[in-house]
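Bump. Still looking for Transposase structure tokens.
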Amino acid sequence: MHLINIMWVVSFMIYLGIDIGKRHHEAGLINESGNPIGKTIRFANSKKGSEKLLTLINTR
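Sorry for the wait, here they are.
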């Protein structure tokens, strides 16, 4: 008997859209079919706001 190691690799694209404003921005993620992934977030034009955006990206 021979053992065969099979590994499946699944890849997909996620797109990030950002609506830029002077004080606040709105960002959302969509999959490659164009369907939203979760809700959009509004974040301030600041370092703290940028950290909120990075949290969105890293948790979805």
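DSSP finds one helix and three strands in the chain.

Edit: fixed formatting.
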